[in-house]
DNA sequence: GTTCTTACA
DNA sequence: TGTAAGCA
């Protein structure tokens, strides 16, 4: 965990508990673009900071595509305002998706309860006849 | 021993 | 994203 200015792919993998494959994949997806020292990747503090944001976004449930949008803003429109605005928007969408999933789950749960009730009634009826 | 690219159950 | 293969 060299506290210096550069990190190897293994350094970051260890620090953030992700696999080497994951870091290479994120690069492939354009979320990070570590420098190269010959052929090897050389991660800067900036890459490290981005990775931190990527993982945070993933925890919240944002897609890599959405995370990239935020990261891009952090690069281009260096103003923190547009970035926060974007994040706020994505968070709202994420919440809506979760709420919808919750509604779907509740609906299935209710159906299960109804079927359960039905089954018990059938069993009670048969028992009563014997 | 470590990292890289490519391909695929 | 995991894993295996063949290099550097």
UniProtKB/TrEMBL annotation:
<dbReference type="GO" id="GO:0003700">
    <property type="term" value="F:DNA-binding transcription factor activity"/>
</dbReference>
<dbReference type="GO" id="GO:0003677">
    <property type="term" value="F:DNA binding"/>
</dbReference>
<dbReference type="InterPro" id="IPR000551">
    <property type="entry name" value="MerR-type_HTH_dom"/>
</dbReference>
<dbReference type="InterPro" id="IPR009061">
    <property type="entry name" value="DNA-bd_dom_put_sf"/>
</dbReference>
<dbReference type="InterPro" id="IPR047057">
    <property type="entry name" value="MerR_fam"/>
</dbReference>
<keyword id="KW-0238">DNA-binding</keyword>
<protein>
    <submittedName>
        <fullName>MerR family transcriptional regulator</fullName>
    </submittedName>
</protein>
<dbReference type="Pfam" id="PF13411">
    <property type="entry name" value="MerR_1"/>
</dbReference>
<feature type="domain" description="HTH merR-type">
    <location>
        <begin position="6"/>
        <end position="73"/>
    </location>
</feature>
